[in-house]
Amino acid sequence: EVQLIQSGADVKKPGATVKISCKVSGYTFIDYNIHWLKQAPGKGPEWMGLVDPEDGETVYVEKFQGRLSITADTSSDTTYMELSSLRSEDTAVYFCATATSPVFDYWGQGTLVTVSS
Amino acid sequence: EIVLTQSPPTLSLSPGERATLSCRASQSVSSFLAWYQQKPGQAPRLLIYDTSNRAPGVPARFSGSGSGTDFTLTISSLEPEDFAVYYCQQRTNWPPSYTFGQGTKLEIK
Asked: Which residues of B touch A59 (CB under 8 A)?
């Protein structure tokens, strides 16, 4: 059974950095890209970027460039999403997801990040 | 960037009725259109990919159709568990890009 298990909710002050983990099981980690998505309150999901666990190559959406880092650790089958210079608009639930079909067929449970002073 | 517009924003129907949800793209997405269902506090669940292919385990009452810029998700006879928010999503292969619509909330009338 494919599972993506994310780290727990976090509260950060403006300007801080958050790092969320996503541990994968149920398939060979390097076989599929891992994607990260943001879902702000009351909004649809927003794709942020991806990592290819096989070689660490990343693709980031331009609006997050410079603040976003997605990495993969093949020794623990875990990916990490780090977002820096947090502001109130970054308050959201963040999901990792994988695409064994052409689209996002397996998702983590989501991690709520609250940015508040 | 391709923008997806879903209509209606809210759809009020009763169990047993037929639901028709629409998704319009700002430019052609070929057949690369997917549909997801999301319930409160849960991750989205993939229902349909590449316009009309049901994901494993998705009931046959869910069907997708369309091409180019206009797509439809149809639920033939609503079950109580179908009341949720539905999102359409498009993808481009290279450079990779994925965008979602703003959602249609399917609520019990």
From this structure: 95-96
